Amino acid sequence: MTHELQGYFLEDLEPGMYGSYTRTVTEADLVLFAGLSGDNNPVHINEEFASSTFAKGRIAHGMFLGGLISCVLGTRMPGPGAIYLGQDIRFRAPVRVGDTVRAVATVREIDPERRRVTLETTCHVRKREVVTGEAEVLIGSRYD
After folding, report:
1. Which of 23, 33, 94, 113 is a Cys-bridge partner for 59, taking CB atoms 3.0 to 4.6 Å apart?
2. How far apart are the first and last CA of the chain?
3. Chain-centre distance of CA 117, in angstroms?
């Protein structure tokens, strides 16, 4: 069971357990993420340019959505103490300012010997899957 400073221990997890985080994307999110990451691609920050692209308007940075998944892994499932080792991620549909994104991480496999947990990771806008992937985390044992 999680509490504020310690997420789930390896022994507490079972396949199918999940955590989620929901956030509505704002103008400030795009501008701040562009500033923090240095990714000033005009498809994210220039409406006139973005309107002339396949996206037909500005879209959120893919790694901003990856950051929402990181939020789930580090604060909800498995939570504080988990070490994010890797992520396979696929961007399936654009996300725009005003969209409410629900990031979800679901336990798929547990490797007790290596203390690794594989989680299915997704982001949804309404009922549409906009991001799919798989993450691997290192997690502590109750007996460490």
Report:
1. 94
2. 16
3. 16
| Tens-place pLDDT, residues 58-85 | 999 999 999 999 999 999 999 999 999 9
The answer to whether residue 4 scores a pLDDT higher than 90 is: no
Q: β-pairing, 116-125 with 18-24? A: unpaired
Residue pair 44/29 in contact (Cβ under 8 Å)? The answer is no
Beta-bridge partner residues of 134: 88, 120
- The reported pTM is 0.93
DSSP-assigned letters across all residues of the chain: --BTTB---GGG--TT-EEEEEEE--HHHHHHHHHHH----HHHH-HHHHHTSTTSS----HHHHHHHHHHHHHHTSS-TT-EEEEEEEEE-S---TT-EEEEEEEEEEEETTTTEEEEEEEEEETTEEEEEEEEEEE---TT-
Distance CA 94, CA 52 (A): 15
d(CA 29, CA 64): 8
